[in-house]
Each structure stands twice: as C-alpha cells, then as structure tokens.
Amino acid sequence: MSPHRHFFGSRLGRPTAARISTPGGPPPITVKNLTMAYGSFVLMKDLNFVVKHGDIFIIMGGSGCGKSTLLRHLLGLIEPATGEIVYGDFNFTKAEPLARESMLRSFGVLYQSGALWSSMTLAENVGLPLGQFTDLSAAEIREVASLKLALVGLKGFEDYFPSQISGGMQKRAGLARAIALDPEILFFDEPSAGLDPISSRLLDDLILELRDNLGATVVVVTHELASIFAIGNNSVFLDAESRTMIASGDPKELLAHSTDHRVRTFLTRGGEDAADSARSHG
Amino acid sequence: MQAQEQSIKSGELSFARADSSTLVVRLRGDWHLRHGLPTSQAVETQLNTAPRPSRLTFEASDLGEWDSGLLTFLNGVSDICQKHHLKPDFASLPDGVRQLIELAEAVPEKSGARAEAHHSSFIEHLGSSTLLYLHGIDEFLRFLGEVTIAFINLFLGKARFRSVDLMVLIQDCGLHAFGIVTLITFLVGVIMAFMGAVQLQLFGAQIFVADLVAIAMTRDMGAMMTAIIMAGRTGASFAAQLGSMKVTQEIDALTTMGISPLEFLVLPRVTALVLMIPLLCIYADCVGILGGAFVGSTVLHLSLQTYLRETMHAVTLTGIFGGVLKGIAYAVIISVAGCLRGFQCGNSSSAVGDAATEAVVTSITYIVVACGLFAFIFNAIGI
Hints:
The complex is a heterodimer.
Chain A: E1 29-38, E2 41-51, E3 56-61, H1 67-74, E4 82-87, E5 90-91, H2 97-104, E6 107-110, H3 122-133, H4 138-151, H5 167-178, E7 185-189, H6 197-214, E8 217-221, H7 225-231, E9 234-239, E10 244-248, H8 251-257, H9 261-267, H10 273-281
Parallel strand pairs in A: 3-8, 3-9, 6-7, 7-8
Antiparallel strand pairs in A: 1-2, 1-4, 4-5, 9-10
Chain B: H1 2-7, E1 12-19, E2 22-31, H2 41-47, E3 55-59, E4 63-66, H3 68-83, H4 95-106, H5 122-155, H6 163-173, H7 178-200, H8 208-247, H9 250-255, H10 261-298, H11 304-314, H12 317-343, H13 349-380
Parallel strand pairs in B: 2-3, 2-4
Antiparallel strand pairs in B: 1-2
Helix pairs in contact in B: 2-3, 3-4, 5-10, 6-10, 7-8, 7-10, 8-10, 8-11, 8-12, 8-13, 10-11, 10-12, 12-13
C-alpha cells in the first residue's frame, strides 16, 4: 500500500465503500465462466481470468469483439447472461443493488469520451463524488478537486466547462474525476481514442504513475498496440470469430511466445512491424 | 459550360459473341457517375438469351475516362454473374479497375447481414402497435413508481441531489417560460372571448363573455395551455438533456460512481416542474382573463370595471384549485415522460431528437387523457 493512499486522512475515507482486497489477499477481480449476450445473440462466452493487485490489465481484441461490453459487465452496467464477476471476496453479480452501489465507490472509471458532466465546471465534476460520499466542506472539496486536477496537469482549469477545453484535456479531467475518491480499481475505456500520439503517450505515463503512486489496480480496454506494450503487464485477448478469449497473459510475452496466428497478427499489426515497438518498451 | 458538358458522351455498352459460349461486353466512351450509367440488367438479358453463354469477358480498348460509375456497373455485373454461376473475366480491363473490383470482392458478403424486407399485414401492424402502446403505458407507470420511491427516499433523507441544480431548473421552468406562457394564454383569452362574443351578442348577453373566459381559463384552459407549452418546451428539453447525457456516457459515469441517476437527475426536474407549473397556471389564468378583458373593452365596448366585476362573480376558489390540481398532475406527466424518454434514448444524435419528439407526444397524449379523467371525476363529485 502506497503511503499516498490516504493522503487526505480519515475524512476522505470511504465509510460506506466496500474494501475490495489487500495485497496478499484474494485477487481484486476474478471473472468466472462469463457469457455476454444480447438476447439470444451470444457475444462472448467462457471468459475466465484473474486480475492481480497492481496489474495494468489490458482487455484487447479487434473492433466489435466485445471489449467495451466486457468493461460494461465489469462495471455492472450490463448483467451477464451466465457466470460471475467477483471483486476480492465480494460476488458483484449476485449482490443486492445497495451493496453494489457501495462497491462502485471503490472504482474509478475513465470513459472513452471523458463523459464529463457538461453543465458543471471541472472542479464541480471532480468535486461531485467528494460531495456525495465524504463529509468534507465545500472549501475542502474545492481544494481536493484542485489537487486532483493538478495531478493530471490541469492546475488552473478548475472553473472551465468541459466544452471549453480540448479532447485530451477532457480525458485528463475525466481521469481526475475517476481518482477523486482514491479508487482501488481504475477502469479505462479506450483512453487513447481520439488523441494524438504525444497526448496518448502522456496519458499512458499518467496511468503508470497513478498505478504506482495510488497503488490502484488498472483495467484498460484498448486496441492501441503502443499503449498495450507501454503499460500492460497482464491481458486477455478476445476473438470475435470464436466468440471467446483465446489468450491471456503479459502482452509482451504473448508477442514473443504466442503461437496463435490471430494473436500474433493482432499484436504485430498484421506483420512483424510492431515487434520493434514492443521490444523498445520491453 | 452546360453545352460543353452535354456534349460529353456517357459510357456506351454493347455486346458481342466471341463464340457460342462467350459473351463479350464492350465498354466505350467515358464512364462518369454524373452522366448516368447503362444498367447492368442489359447483361442479365444477354445471359438469358440462347445460346446461354458460359463465359463473360470484357473489351475495353475504346474505354475513355472512368470513375466509380464504371465500378458500380461492373459490381452489378459481378452479382448477376454469381447468380448465373459464372465468373466474369476482368483481365482486359485497366489495372486500376481490376484492382478496385478485387478490393470490393475481397471480403465476401456476410450471410444474414442483409436486412430482409418485412411486409406486415394491416391486422399484424394494428396488433403490434397496440401491444407497443400498452408496453409504453406499462413503462411509464413503472417509471412513475420508481420516481415515487425515490421521492419517499428523499423525504426519508436517503436520497440527495444538488440544490443548485434544482435552482437552475426552477429558473428554467419558471422564469424563462413566462414570456411564451404570457403570449399564448393572452391570445387564448382573446380567441375565446371572440368566439363567445359572436354568439352572445345575438342575445344581447355579451357581458357573459367575461364568465365564459374566466370559467374556461381557471377550470381547464389555463392548466391545459400551460401544460402543452411546457410539454413542448421543457419536456422536450428534459428528454434531450438526458438523452445527450446518455450518448456521452455521462449517465453511465453517475451510475458507476454509485450515484443514482434517478435521484440525481430526475428528482430535481420533477420537483422544479411540480413547483412551477401551478404558479404558471395561476399566472396563465390571469393573463387569459386579461385577454378576454381586452376584447370586452375594445370590441364589445364593456368597461374594464364591469368586465372584471363579472369575472369575479364567475370565478370560484374551487375552480382555481381544480385548475391548479390539474396543473400538478400535468407537471408530473411532463417531467416523468421527458425523463423516461431521455433515459430510453439510443446512442446516436438522431436518437436524441427522437427522444425529444417522443417526450412531447407522450406528454400531450397523457395530458389529454388526464384532462378527460379529471372532467369525469369532477363531474361525478359535483365540482
């Protein structure tokens, strides 16, 4: 556990949020026999994987294979057709709505579009969860929100509205909101989407720094090879054709040792040209 | 320039038989989309003409400039050949054409992907529409139930929303709606007075125009017109706001933060409208009566004093409170329908527009139904 974990002391503690797990305890995320379906159409089946403490876990695969749908299942936005999602010892799939809500407060989510609340300033966006789930005063909330914005490089932008800043800045502001309550698990949906290569690299660096300093476990949905190799240390590969996962493990290991042509084709961008990129990060 | 364009010859198509089993398709001239294209059906006619060819080739020595028009034609020919179990020979076509055709055929059509045209009978259509409508009522009532539970939680201190959001919404639903409510209800008062005046003047009873306008406005028209204005203005706005929030995943962001979107987004909207519509109803009643008074004094030559005295005789507290009660019911309908349609919005920008339209249609339909129910109930209890 990082010493920065409870930087704001007990007043920023999560009195109602469930504790997922601690290092040495059960893994933060366990997915068991998960089947994702829309009505009778099965999108993915037999998904089994474990995300360990401090992992940057990549959910990867081609477009339309169900990566974002899997993320929505992990967040409880879609119910599994069959199977279970377990956070630590807590069976999220079978939990009552109130217990689930409590568990959700241990998560931080950065959506593809940032999903900032457009009628609120950046400080209000970051401050909303603090106002809802802590006893901090308005001035203290403002201070914490300023700090979180500073952590993502947006110091001084507290009173800007989302429409007044660029797409990359919106992503970073979304990240500041995601870490508002010092979450134990951070979820990222296509963090590099719509960003130029430099902004994308900066966001990757930020994810690594937050993981290291907040001690959070990170789950990232992406198909950006540069990001996958730069930050991922564990992964699952979803295949649209066979409608199940066909590989899991460290992406760099998969690139080096996987014999499955679908995995290799994806990780080498249809050739071997991405291998160099992976080695340079490796 | 126009004459020059017309002089450009469009693509020409002719057919020849190299031998009894080979159909040669000759392409001449410039094949541009903007000049129109020969239909590929002509090729089908040739393939059905005896002796039926087993091979199809092209002759393109006189082919001029080409664009997607030629490719579209060749793609159509390729589909026809597939139906006749032939493989067209594109070898004699320019390299660019050949490569683009190969690109178009590189990924075969996914079976089952093409939408099948489905023609339903009138009875089937009527049945499915009725079921859909009943399902809509069911959804509305369920959502109304959820909102009621959320309100109970609010009173028990288990639910919260931002007071600043409520203030902004009250300003939007109330203050910002004054202008349009004033204009419409004043004109409604004027129209009703004119309609009544035409008939009542025949009997020399034009003074009763004041009674007609006052009773109609306070009992029904004030609430009804305010509700219709607010359904178009605020109900649609609620649906569009929540729909946009759904498209941009802002509602998901609330959910995954453990904040109930129903409490955070719906409660302040319902509260704001329930607080504002009754006030707007009373205001609309007054403005409508003023509209009637305007006609009374300018057209019927009644003094303002006489008109207002007659109005005071006609108006009852029961009538005013009846109108306000209807206004509260309409406010619930508008806000719940607007929020429900917003939450049901799809994930595209056009879906946001559809949600706004649906919200207005649902609100107005249910307002009229509620108005009928109120008329029946008020009549039964003698109000």
